[in-house]
Amino acid sequence: MQSLNIIGAGRVGRTLGRLAVVSGACRVVDCLARSHESAREAVSFIGQGRAVDALKDLAAADLLLLSVPDDAIAGVAQALLASGAVRPGSVVFHASGAAEAEVLAPLRAAGAHVASLHPAFSFANPARAVEQFAGTLCALEGDAAACVALQDFAAAIGARPFALAPGGKAAYHAALSVASNYLVTLTELARQLALQGGVGEQLLPALLGPLMQGSLANALSMGPQAALTGPIVRGDVATVARHLAALPADMQAVYRALGERTVALAGARLPAEAGQSLRAVLAGG
Ligand SMILES: NC(=O)c1ccc[n+]([C@@H]2O[C@H](COP(=O)([O-])OP(=O)(O)OC[C@H]3O[C@@H](n4cnc5c(N)ncnc54)[C@H](OP(=O)(O)O)[C@@H]3O)[C@@H](O)[C@H]2O)c1
User: For the chain, which terminus, N or C, has the lower number of CB atoms within 10 Å?
Assistant: First the structure.
C-alpha cells in the first residue's frame, strides 16, 4: 500500500487524509501544520499517522500532499527541498485550483515528480466533506509519472480525476470563477433592474429564480446556442435599444459586452441583417 504525508493539515488535508484511510488507498504516515495542536487534531480526525513539527522530521512517503494555503505553496516547496525529506521517485502534489504544478518544480532537483490535483468541491467542514466527496471531479496536471500515481489515488478515494492541458490551469480556474462568481454578479444586476422597474423585493426570488434555473438547465442539457431565447436571438433590435435607454450608466458597459457575446452565440439562428443591426445598437450606433 502507498504511503502519504500531509503538509498543511487543514480542511482539504484532513478530508483527503481521512478518505485515503477509510478507502484503503494509502497509509497516512505524517501530518504537519503550522501548530502542533492542529496537526494532532488532524491525526485524530484522519485516524492514522503521526503529528510532526518540522519538515525535516517527515518520514519517507510515496505521496506528499501540500495542502497549505495557495500563497504558501512555493515557500513550503523550497523549505521541503532544503529539509531533505523528499526521496527520489516520490510524488509531491498540491490541491490549488489556480496554481500550476510548476510551482513545485524546484522539488524535481530531489528526484520528485510534481503535480496538482484540484478537487472541484467546497471543503467547508471535513466531516461533512468525507461523507459527500464521492464522485467529485478532480483536475489533474503535472509530470506524467505523478499524474499516473495520482489518477490511481484519486480514483481510490472516490474522485473522478480528469487531465488538464499543459499550462491550462489559469483558464480552468477562470472557468470555475466565471461559472460560480459571475453567475452571482449577474443575479445582482438582474435584481437591481427588476427593482428599478418597480418589482417588490419579496417577489424577486420567485420572478428571477425559475427563469435563471431553467435557462441554466437548458444551456447545460441542450447546449448554449440552442438554449438561447429572448430579444437578441429573435432579432428584436428595437427592444434591445429600449433596454439600453433604460439602463443606468454603470450597467451600460456590461450589458453591451454580454449582448455582443450573445449575438455571436446566436450565430446562424440570427439573420445576418438583424445581427448587423444588433451589433450597431450594442456598439452605441
Ligand atoms: N477549502 C476548499 O474548499 C478547497 C477546495 C479545493 C482546493 N482547495 C485548496 O486546498 C489547499 C488548502 O486549502 P484549505 O482550505 O484546506 O486551507 P486551510 O483549511 O486553511 O488549511 C491550511 C493548512 O495549512 C497549514 N499551513 C499554513 N501555512 C503552513 C506552512 N507554512 N507550513 C505548514 N503548514 C502550513 C495550516 O496550519 P494550521 O492548521 O496550524 O493553521 C492548515 O493546517 C489550498 O491550495 C486551496 O486552494 C481548497
Answer: C
